[in-house]
Specification:
By secondary structure, the protein is mainly α. About 50% of the residues lie in helices and about 5% in strands. β1 and β2 (about 65) form a beta hairpin. It is elongated, with a radius of gyration of 19 Å. The N and C termini lie close together (about 10 Å).
Length: about 160
């Protein structure tokens, strides 16, 4: 599965917030500079993240954004759902009563893709931001990190 660019940028930005969760709020300008994501693009992403209750804004000097919940309570699936507006559809397509063979095949295909999407969502819903931060040491790398300092799961999720 390949994630959308919006989802990858949102996950990366949320990771930035998670790494600084106990330190201080992070400004979008800081995320923009450290991650190489345009500020106006981040503003659009964070509007969606805020609307879904994943981040909160902190006003005033030293303000910025913080996670709305602890990193262990925010999953990758929640971030993707907020950005790409994806919500799993449980049994969304039911087999039709029409006896036309091509129509029946279409329903079977839809059911298969719905089930696959649900499994992928379940997997991503089991991965939290805390898993990334716990695997990162103070130098910003982990024993199984790639050349960018990302751990294996994060690299796989955000790979282009």
């Amino acid at each position: 599965m390949k994630l959308s660019t919006k989802a990858r940028h949102a996950i990366t930005a949320m990771m930035d917030l998670a790494l600084n969760d106990k330190v201080r709020p992070i400004t979008l300008a800081e995320i923009s500079q450290s991650q190489g994501i345009s500020l106006s693009y981040l503003e659009q992403l964070f509007a969606k993240l805020r609307k879904c209750g994943l981040v909160v804004g902190v006003r005033g000097p030293g303000g910025g954004y913080k996670l709305a919940r602890v990193p262990g309570e925010i999953t990758v699936a929640q971030i993707i759902s907020a950005i790409d507006e994806y919500y799993p559809q449980h049994n969304a397509v039911e087999a039709g009563t029409d006896s036309e063979p091509s129509l029946e095949k279409k329903y079977v295909t839809h059911i298969m893709w719905d089930e696959l999407s649900e499994k992928i969502y379940e997997f991503l819903n089991s991965i939290t931001l805390a898993e990334f931060t716990e695997r990162t040491n103070p130098s910003g790398t982990s024993p199984d990190s790639d050349s960018d300092g990302n751990n294996g799961i994060f690299s796989a999720l955000t790979a282009a």
